[in-house]
Amino acid sequence: MINRVLFSITVLFCSVLLVAQERIVKVDFESSSFKNTPLIPFDQPFILEGEVFKEVEYVEILIFNENSNKVLYSYNWNRNTANNSETFSLLIPGVLKSNSKYDFKVITYTLMNDVQKRKLAESIHQRIDLFFQNSFQFDGKNVIINNPSSVYRELNDLLGEALAFQRSKNSISYAGPSQLVYDAIKAQSDFKFDAFLRKTGSFERDSLATELIDEKVNGMTKLVMAEILPYINTELVQHYRSVTIPSVSTDKEQFSLPVNAGMYAWNKSVSINDASVRNTNFTPGFGFTVPLSGKSTLAAKSKLFDSFGYSMGVLMSPVRDASGTEFVTPGVNLPVYTALGFRLFKVVRFNAGVVIVGEKGLQDFSNLTIVPSVGLALELNLWMGIKK
Fold first, then answer.
1. Which helix (H) or strand (E) segment is 11 a member of?
2. What is the pLDDT of residues 13-29, one digit of tens each?
3. Could you give the CA distance from residue 308 to residue 297 in angstroms, rounded to a whole number?
4. Smallest Cα–Cα separation from 245: which of 28, 8, 17?
5. Separation of alpha carbons 378 and 311, rounded Å
6. I need a surface site. Which of 174, 211, 228, 311 has the fewest CB within 10 A?
7. What does the radius of gyration of the chain's CA atoms come to, in whole angstroms?
8. Nearest to 359 by CA among 320, 308, 385, 388
């Protein structure tokens, strides 16, 4: 008897482990594909693996909607100092949707040595120096930077491009030039050179202006480099190789209809003695939701809400105004609501819409009124047993 119990517990434990185990999807760098071209899971985590050289220290996974250039999700694998394997393994959370296609980009990075980092710093220094030389202007009277906001944005773009192929293993990021740099650029637009050169000749003015520009360019370049060097001096890795795996399909989900039940607030007004009197109350209701098609980046990235949809249903009792008159939807004998909303935490539906009603007992469709309504309901998927 004890052996049977122990055997049953063992079988149950193994079953739980099998259910809990994430699916493994392997990257084939040579063919730029997933091995055996599998469907990938939706709405549940899976492990992305691939074979890499020992020199690869960092792997970045970018996920896009099919044929899109906008990054939807980004994940990275950072080799531990004790890890000498030739395989990377990264857990992708359950963020993908069913019956959808995604493009995956897998980028590998190798560690930069001191010589490479020094050459990178020298290259950026030269680019910044040339940028500021082209930004300062001498109009015969003043040495200034016109439109400092535009110059600051262009500098930010330049540095973003210069560091586009580097990442920091220390999880330190360079967010662009600081407010201090912007203030310094803006200060250059206020410098008045005319009074300084009032008594000099034309040749002397040009010569002094050139010297002053060189001095200012050197100062601005040093200021920007002072912010970049701490980032370059981290454990920096640089782009080694990348593969793009297009049009990867997720598993198909059996069709289900979201049904919901909850409480709906409404507000019904009535005119009494030429005064508008409102009655606000809560009524239980139930209905169903048709999810809106299309891919929303905001909903896809949000951990709070998802699944925008159009809802329709009925309230379980009539709507009443302040005088006690009951209102229902003709032909149904209960108030019918329609609403747009979104799902919270995958189980709660928030709706905002209207209730379409007429006075109870009357079948006059030409005298319907619109009552605003908001609702909060528990939503579950009703399994339909067919494939999409």
1. helix 2-20
2. 343 333 346 788 999 99
3. 12
4. 28
5. 13
6. 211
7. 32
8. 320
Quote the pLDDT of residue 223: 95
DSSP, res 98: T
262/296 Cα distance (integer angstroms): 26
Give the distance from CA 243 to its chain's centroid.
Answer: 22
* pLDDT, position 293: 58
DSSP string, 328-342: EBTTTTB-EEEEEEE
Gap between the Cα atoms of 238 and 112, Å rounded: 6
CA 70 to the chain's CA centroid: 10
Higher pLDDT, 275 or 185: 185
296 in helix, strand or coil?
A: coil
Give the global pTM.
0.63
> Which residue(s) pair with 380 in the sheet?
259
Distances 259 to 187, 188, 262, 290, 379 between C-alpha atoms, Å: 61, 63, 10, 9, 6
Sequence-distant (6+) residues with CB within 8 A of 35 are 25, 26, 27, 28
SS3 269: strand
Here the tokens at position 223 are: 């200021």
Q: Both tokens of residue 64?
A: 């896009």
Task: Give the β-pairing of 326-328 and 101-111.
Answer: unpaired
For residues 154 and 342, give the distance between their C-alpha atoms in angstroms, rounded to a whole number.
39
Q: With bands split at pLDDT 50, 70 and 90, how would you rate the model's confidence at 181?
A: very high
Q: Does 302 have pLDDT greater than 90?
A: no
Name the token pair of 381. Answer: 């998927």
Contact assessment for residue 375 and residue 344, using Cβ atoms and an 8 Å cutoff: no
Residue 5 scores a pLDDT above 50: no
For the range 178-182, what are the long-range contacts, defined as Cβ-Cβ under 8 Å and sequence gap of 24 or more? 178/227, 180/223, 181/152, 181/155, 181/220, 181/223, 181/224, 181/227, 182/148, 182/152
Query: For the chain, what is the total number of helices (H) and then of strands (E)?
Result: 6, 19
